[in-house]
Design goal:
This protein has 291 residues and is an alpha+beta fold. 30% of the residues lie in helices and 26% in strands.
Length: 291
């Protein structure tokens, strides 16, 4: 069957990319429908210019490539079309030109790793920054506990928008997330307000947050992102808001949750948090660089 390549054209194409991610999802791959939505809309549209290419066959996307120039590539190839991997890498090399570039496959993506080595990429050492992939079955969840006066609840929609953005920006300072970009996130599939959780402080401010994206075909939710306002840290709020969101995910039909925090020594705290909740590691990313 003929395969054709074209440029990204908007929200319908993002949905087609998500459909591929959903169709081939497994713990051997890096992409979930939620991380594509978050990655595409977390910044205002005017601040991003990320070339995206799609390869189609029989009316559906069978591969995509997302270049976050100057140096990073995200990609996905349908296992039924393995030959497209080389086309994707050719496309990225053409964009990057003489610039240094990086790709971050998982350990389990042996085909991608071998292809990168053939093309002159070098594997960085084990201590380089990487992401640690964790999973948690949802049949035995702890109960969330918050200090007296605090409330853990789901976001109620646009009425909470400003406070929801404020807690994210405080937790991830500096952050380019704005009310405009978060409105786009809330409008994107598969965002659900019942899976967007916050801890509300006694003074009405949001002190912590946890957003879960649910893939209802594979029954797996992705936590992306979690944050606590520095003023409210060391109160157990991140733990509580994550557990509350996981309970909501289970009530929605989810059977498993995944999360992908930094795993290198420079960022020890997120892994400690997630493992205390019940998450267990199942994979990690590797960085391949071509100068």
């Amino acid at each position: 069957m003929t395969v054709s390549m074209r440029k990204y054209g908007g929200a319908d194409d993002l949905r087609a990319m998500q459909e591929l991610a959903q169709r081939v999802w497994s713990t051997s791959g890096p992409h979930h429908v939620g991380d594509l939505a978050w990655g595409r809309f977390m910044f205002p549209a005017a601040q991003v210019d990320w070339p995206i290419a799609l390869w189609e066959s029989g009316g559906r996307v069978v591969a995509w490539a997302w270049a976050q120039l100057p140096d990073d590539l995200r990609l996905q190839v349908d296992p039924e079309h393995p030959g497209l991997l080389e086309e994707v890498l050719d496309w990225f090399d053409g964009l990057a030109g003489s610039r240094t570039r990086e790709i971050n496959p998982l350990d389990a993506q042996g085909d991608v790793r071998k292809a990168l080595l053939r093309r002159g990429y070098e594997a960085l050492d084990d201590e380089a920054p990487f992401f640690a992939y964790h999973e948690h079955e949802l049949d035995d969840l702890q109960k969330p506990v918050v200090p007296q006066g605090f409330t853990v609840r789901a976001v109620r929609g646009s009425e909470d928008l400003d406070r929801r953005v404020a807690v994210h920006r405080a937790a991830w300072n500096p952050s380019r997330v704005t009310p405009e970009s978060y409105s786009s996130i809330m409008a994107a599939w598969p965002y659900r307000t019942d899976l967007d959780w916050v801890v509300e402080a006694p003074d009405g401010r949001f002190a912590a947050n946890c957003l879960v994206w649910y893939d209802d075909v594979n029954r797996v939710g992705l936590i992306e992102p979690v944050g606590t306002d520095p003023e409210f840290r060391r109160l157990g709020l991140a733990r509580a808001v994550c557990l509350a969101a996981l309970h909501a995910l289970a009530e929605a039909g989810g059977e498993r949750a995944v999360v992908c925090p930094r795993g290198d020594a420079a960022y020890p705290i997120p892994q400690v948090l997630y493992r205390s909740i019940g998450f267990r590691p199942y994979g990690r990313s590797r960085t391949y660089r071509k100068a």
